[in-house]
Structure formats: C-alpha cells, structure tokens
Amino acid sequence: xxxxxxxxxxxxxxxxxxxxxxxxxxxxxxxxxxxxxxxxxxxxxxxxxxxxxxxxxxxxxxxxxxxxxxxxxxxxxxxxxxxxxxxxxxxxxxxxxxxxxxxxxxxxxxxxxxxxxxxxxxxxxxxxxxxxxxxxxxxxxxxxxxxxxxxxxxxxxxxxxxxxxxxxxxxxxxxxxxxxxxxxxxxxxxxxxxxxxxxxxxxxxxxxxxxxxxxxxxxxxxxxxxxxxxxxxxxxxxxxxxxxxxxxxxxxxxxxxxxxxxxxxxxxxxxxxxxxxxxxxxxxxxxxxxxxx
Length: 293
What we know:
Order of helices and strands: HEEHHHHH
Structural class: mainly alpha
Strand content: under 5%
Low-confidence stretches: 289-293
Oligomer: single chain
C-alpha cells in the first residue's frame, strides 16, 4: 500500500491558480484511463474532505455561538431586572414626560415671579413716599400720590372736597363765621375732609398689607422655583439613567436574537451542498498514437 501511495504521489501534482480558488490537478500515468480514474478519485476525496472540514467548522462555530447565546441571555435578563428595579424606585416617573413640561412650568413660575418683583418694587417706592406724609395733616397729598394704584376715583373725592371748600369760603365772606349757613358749609367740608383723611389712612394701611402679601408671594414663588429646578435636575438624571438601562436591554435582546438567527442559518451535515468543489472540465486524456505495422 505504501508503495502504491508513493507511486501515485510521484505521478500526481496540483496547484492553485493565482487570484482564484481554482485548483489544477495533474496526473501522469502510462494508462490514460487510470490517470483519469486517479484524478476523479482525488476530486471525489477532496470534496468529501472539504465537506468534513465545513461540518467540523460549523459545529465548532455553532457551539461557540450557543455559549455566546447563554452569556448574552443572562446579560439581557440582568439588564431587565435593573430596569424593573429602576421603575420600582421611581414609581412616579413617566417615560412619556418631557423636559419641555418642566421648562414650561419654570417659565410660567419665573414670569409670575418677575411680575411680583416688579409690583413689589413699585409698591416699596410708593410706601417710601407715603411714610413721609401724615395722613391727618396732608391727606390730599397721599391721595394724589396713590393715584393709579387703587380702583377708587380719587379725582371725584378731591373735586367734592374742592367744591365744599369753595362753599365754605363763600359762606364766610357772605355771612361770617357765626352765621348758620357758614356752620352748615363748615360741617360739610369737615365731613368730606374727614372722609379723605380716612381714605388716606386706609391707603397707607392697605399698601403695607399689600407689601407684606407680595413679599410672602415672592418667597413662595422663589421656593417653588427651587423645587422645580431640583425636580428638573432629578428628572434629567433619571431620564438619562432610564434611557441607558432601556438601551442596554434592547441591545442585549437584539444581540440574542441575531445570534439565534445566525445559529439557525448554519447548515448541518445533511445540508452540505455537494458542489463544494466542482470540476471545471473533464480530465485530459493524453494522445496515444496507434502503431501501424
């Protein structure tokens, strides 16, 4: 057998065609039919060899992929557990929530706070002026200073006072201070003047009250803004963590599915194509001239 193999080996050679997957087989034998048989046998055995190599390679690849599937599945399950733990920890967290909701609320609160600050500055300026005026001695000045800040028609009240003052002056000139008409005019003027003094004092008191309320409102809005900022920062942090966890879950399960699809796409031994190697032509039968006698 060894001699046969050695004999065949000496008459057999092969080479790869450059830049191709073509294998050329050369067999030399005194009998052309036997050379053809040797070449065909080599091709047949070579095909079987390639099939076995492919089967072994795919078996190893499949085993490796199965191991990877187990590892990836464990990672995917662990990632889902982390995601569920996050959802339990942040039970009020809504995935659909968007930072625009916080931005809108913060803008609304900031606008309200700015308006409150503007009103408070204006009221403090008014209060600084009112504190310099005695409501009993100069109530008219207080009413003039507070115009536009209150819904009361101070112009009408001041017009009534002016009219009562003119009546009082006219009665004094016409009748004198002791005349009953003067006393009537005097009482009317004092009544209106007292009402104006009361209005002036109410304005000062009301301004003080409004100032206190605005300061409280400002503190409340500033506190609300602080809470909103903290909530917004917590949301951004939680949102980033959620997206990271959800992304990990999706990536691991996608990898798991891809590996399983690859395993299913692998052929088993029964599915090996017989065309692993295909002869490109018939063996060349050397010309053997017939001797003529």
